[in-house]
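Backbone-to-sequence.
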């Protein structure tokens, strides 16, 4: 149930607005007090965000998933559109495909938390009501991002860990490999997405 904005919420909103105005009004970071400098550093996109931005665009996405151990993998082809949002602070993904004979859509938001020094992500899709939260690190000039998420699996009714490895192989090819991580640390590959950038006809002929 929604409630009218109370005095505390109005005060918080005013404080945030005032802080934002202060940040904009600063001639440079050196003009700000140390605590404000820390806030400005936390809010400023950097090299990690620049690397994420290189993944923006329209992609053909071929997904291969292993639904049950011992069963043949299920393959499907869809389209992924990635774009930067919040002035380059985050990368947003929308993927659409047909899975198991039904329309499916998944959405993700990727970023780099300057305060934690960690890559972060959130994922949700039309086959569930949960949101998965990932955290990890990058390597190889940030072309490879390795992350993990702890979640509750409704099929096994148990807590599980998923590991993902996202690799930007070239400007036009990327992969996302998914693993189930057992309690003893054993990793089993459960799926892979191969992304191929879609280019316009005039770009492809160059």
């Amino acid at each position: 149930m929604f409630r009218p904005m109370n005095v505390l919420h109005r005060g918080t909103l005013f404080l945030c607005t005032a802080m934002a105005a202060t940040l904009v009004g600063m001639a440079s970071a050196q003009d700000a007090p140390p605590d404000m400098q820390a806030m400005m550093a936390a809010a400023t996109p950097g090299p990690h965000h620049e690397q994420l931005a290189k993944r923006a665009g329209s992609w053909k996405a071929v997904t291969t998933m292993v639904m049950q151990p011992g069963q043949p993998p299920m393959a499907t082809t869809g389209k992924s559109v990635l774009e930067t949002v919040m002035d380059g602070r985050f990368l947003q993904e929308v993927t659409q495909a047909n899975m198991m004979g039904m329309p499916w859509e998944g959405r993700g938001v990727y970023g780099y938390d300057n305060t934690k020094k960690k890559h972060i992500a959130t994922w949700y899709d039309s086959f569930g009501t949960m949101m998965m939260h990932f955290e990890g690190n990058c390597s190889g000039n940030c072309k490879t991002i390795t992350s993990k998420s702890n979640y509750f699996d409704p099929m096994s009714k148990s807590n599980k860990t998923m590991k993902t490895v996202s690799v930007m192989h070239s400007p036009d090819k990327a992969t996302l490999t998914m693993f189930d991580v057992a309690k003893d640390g054993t990793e089993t590959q459960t799926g892979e997405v191969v992304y191929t950038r879609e280019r316009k006809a005039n770009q492809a002929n160059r």
